[in-house]
Amino acid sequence: MKTHKGGTTMKTLRLLLITGLLLAAPIASVAAQEANASPPATATIRVDGLSCPFCAYGLEKHLKKVAGVEGVDIDMKSGKAIVHLKADTRVNNAELKAAVKKAGFTARGITRP
Amino acid sequence: MIRRTSIGGKSACMRGLFVVGLVAGAIWLATSAQAGPITFNSALPVSAGMGIFRSQVKLIRKSGDATPAGRVLNVTAAPVVLAYGATSKLALFGVLPYVDKRLDITMGGARIQREAQGVGDAVFFGRYTVYQRDRPGDTLRIAPFAGLKTPTGSHSRRDAFGLVPRILQPGSGSWDPLLGVAITRQTLGWEFDAAAKYRFNTGASGFTFGDEARADASFQYRVFPRTLGSGVPAFVYVVLESNLIWNGKNRSLGATDPNSGGLTWNLAPGLQYVTSRLILETAIQIPVVQNLNGTALESDWAWTAGFRWNFFP
User: Which CATH architecture describes the domain A42-111?
Assistant: First the structure.
């Protein structure tokens, strides 16, 4: 009887443990996803030679033409173009530099957070 | 040959508010399309694939005729400019003017007016950036250009008195090559441009306008915003430009006209409002020195107002 009772208890404990793990897994997964979530991807380009508002339009249009680019913010004072990238897309630096060159300017460096 | 020199703006200062002086046939050639000078070409970039549409209204007045004819010439020109960035370094330009020319003159004791209107001569040229040094908020560029003035304007207009004088015709009838170079240094606070250009005028129907050479300079200073904020703010520039223009003597049926051509130096104060899509601008060209041949008409003033708009076709 003791053995039988102990076996039942163990079975119950195992069941509870498995149930607990099964329940905890999705929660842990969501928590892990939340922990890994990052702000929308951006690339900041230092653009040299940009010194006139009228010229900035060409730069903005060329950067927006790059596949995977969602939006562009240009800051003339700092000489930087902040490129907002679409989720789940990869845009390499060479493409961004080529777009800056087409616009008639010089891309000195690209930083990503 | 009589040579006349007026220094200090003899007629310009007297006539006050407006002003300018320039050879009518050359004014629309001076137009470029990017931000930069108002009365001549800059070396600033036109992005690859981008178009710029520009138009101006120019009012030009010439007088100072000491002969009994008392000629007074009024020209209204409206050039339309289309620029296209073939590559980031090569920009192509097309200029087509509409002109209205009126000459008041005393003939046979009566004051009459002769006039001609119509599409003028189209000009096409290309400009290539051969040197570019970019720094943060600062660029220096050198760009030679070359092109051709084409005889799209009529040079055989007639009025009630017969064939109107060649100076009044909307076009010259000739194919005239031109070449030059533009240099631009632009920072976030100011811009300096310089350009030199020469046009080799050929003849048509027995008449040849004298060649033209010019040296131009422009300084633009940002007065608004005083302190740069974030983003791409609109700029307001005050502008001062200088145009030194030499015109050779005209030739008619092989004979040189002693009453044509000469040297003019203009100063042109102006104002520019510049956004990322649009430029509004105005300038007044005031003759400071005019060293003209014979009875060639003096420039009194020339006023320019226009806009530029950029687009991607």
Answer: 2-Layer Sandwich (3.30)
